[in-house]
C-alpha cells in the first residue's frame, strides 16, 4: 500500500507540473482541452488516494480480527495467497496511475494518443474492482471500512469515467480544426478518394477483428494468472 500511495502522490505532482507548463505555452482550444483533461486526471488521483486509505483501514481490521494470538507477520504467511492477491491488486492501481500520467503527458504535448489515456482509465477502474474483490475475501460483510472501500471504489469509477469523457470531448475539439473540405475536387478526384477510403475501411475492419481476437486471448491469460495463481476469489487452505 505504501508503494501505491507513493505512486499516486508522484502522479498527482506530475499532473500539477504538466498543468503549469501547459498554461505557460498553450492558448485557445489547446489550453482549454489540456486543462479539462488534466483536471479530470487530478480528480482521479484524489479518488485513488481515498481508495488507498480505505483499503489500509480495512486491511488493518482484517489482520486484527483474523490473526488471534499470531503476529501480523504470521498472519500474512498463513494467508499468503490472499496477501499476494491484495498486494497485486494494489500495485496494479498504482501502476495504472503512473502509466495514465505518462499517457496524459504525451497527449498534452500533442505527441500521444487520446485512446491510450482512455484505456489507462479503464484499467484503473478494473484494478480497483480487483482490489475490492481481494479485500472482500477476508472482510466481515458488515465491516464499516468495507463499506467505505466500496464507496471509494465507486468514486474511482466515476472519476475514470470523467477522464474518458474529457478525453473524448477534447479529441473531438482538436480534430474539428481539421475539417474535411472537398469543394475544390473534381468528380474524378472524388471517385479516387472514395475508392481509397473504402480500401482503408476494409483494411481497418480486418485489423480490428484480429486485434479483438488478440485482446480476448490476452484477457483470458490475464484472468488465469491473476485469478488462479493469486487466489482472489477463494479462501486459503487451513483458514476459516
UniProtKB/TrEMBL annotation:
Keywords: Cytoplasm. The lineage of its organism: Eukaryota, Metazoa, Chordata, Craniata, Vertebrata. This is I/LWEQ domain-containing protein. It is found in: Cytoplasm. Its main location: cytoplasm. PROSITE patterns: I_LWEQ (PS50945). SMART domains: ILWEQ (SM00307). InterPro entries: I/LWEQ_dom_sf (IPR035964), ILWEQ_dom (IPR002558), Sla2_fam (IPR030224).
